[in-house]
Amino acid sequence: MNRLRIGIVGLGFGKHIVNELLKSPAKDIIELAAVCDTRPDLTSEVAATAGCKAYTSLDDLLNDPTIPAIGLYTGPNGRAELIRRIVDSGRDVMTTKPLEIDPDAALKSLQHAAALGRTVHLNSPSPRLPAELAQISIWQQQYDLGRPVACRRDVWVSYNESADGSWYDDPELCPVAPVYRLGIYLINDLVRLFGAAEQVTILQSRLRTGRPTADSGQLGILFKNGVIANIFASFCVLDGDHYRNGIVLNFERGTIYGNVGPNRPNGCGVDLSLVQERNNKRQIVASVTCESYSGGYDWATFAAAVRGETQSGLISPEEAVQGVRLIVAMKEALRNNGAAQVKG
Questions:
Q1: What is the DSSP string of 276-294?
Q2: Across the strands, what pairs with 133?
Q3: Residue 6, phi-psi category: left (phi > 0), alpha (psi -120 to 50), beta (remainder)
Q4: Are 134 and 107 a contacting pair, CB within 8 Å?
């Protein structure tokens, strides 16, 4: 099978994507054909290392007829317009979280792409339901768990960043920074599980960061189906347990635990366990390790979509922007005593 040729735009975060595409399994599916950034020295350096073409203008890249797909890794502000430009040129797009800061602009760009028959995929929310979320849905039916009641999620890491004038330093473009930058994966997962949200509350603090934005934050979410969820994210924790994306999910008749507590049975992936009460005793009735994880780039599904293969169960444009609507409410809550309604 011929590999899909792609050009990577934006070499800040995009450098990580370049490295991913140079290794299996991604390189077996995707051929890195070009990189593009407005910084010539950086672009030349990355292109030389990767052995691909170098462009310093998106227009020049889009004039290259040998590259049918674009990986877009610029900041979220204004990304909808860039997506429109790219799909109008006849290309398909893989991009990253967060999709945009304007949910209506994001929705219009995704709908415009769909009308043109073009593909736009993200790592979060992913085009297909992530493995751990699919497993949760299976257990909910298989073990008659009833309705979801509440969920707690957390993610942390240790960063020692300095202010650099980027969008990471702007509380309008990067509200409750650790929740926006890391917790966005968890937000998108919860929306896939519980649907649209109704209200949010926030708390944030700044302990040690070199940036003017927060380095620890907490987002509370009330979903329209009555589920109450909480997301905690921090840049201030050094314990060797980075990016574990823990989850405790309560149902009426059971609780699912994932990647929480000190033990890591398998060391990678997502370890899920289901606990229920049976015969008046607490029992672990099911356990599984999902090797893949939410937030990874599904290059195989993207390449298949670009080739025009029929695929079912893919996320809709409306679902893809629900997390962005939550972020907008989070920004409003910052200006409104910590609480806001989710609109749209």
A1: EEETTEEEEEEEEEESS-T
A2: none
A3: beta
A4: no
CA 43 centroid distance within chain: 25
228-234 and 216-223 beta bridge pairing: antiparallel
The CA distances from residue 5 to 82, 152, 218, in Å, are: 19, 40, 40
Contacts for 168 with CB less than 8 Å, ≥ 6 apart: 161, 174, 177, 181, 211, 213
Taking every pair of Cα atoms in the chain, the longest distance, rounded to a whole number of angstroms, is 68
Predicted TM-score (pTM) of this structure: 0.89
Q: Helix H segments across the chain?
A: 14-21, 40-50, 58-62, 79-88, 103-115, 131-142, 177-181, 184-194, 299-306, 317-320, 322-334
Digit-coded pLDDT (tens) for 150-162: 999 999 999 999 9
Is residue 64 within 8 A of residue 44, CB to CB? The reply is no
Q: What are the start-end ranges of the E strands in 206-269?
A: 216-223, 228-234, 246-251, 254-258
Distances (CA, A) of 192 to 38, 185, 223: 36, 11, 12
Q: Which two tokens stand for residue 73?
A: 């890794």
Q: What is the pLDDT of residue 265?
A: 67
- Taking the CA atoms of the chain, what radius of gyration do you get in angstroms? 20
180: phi then psi, degrees, rounded to nearest 5? -70, -40
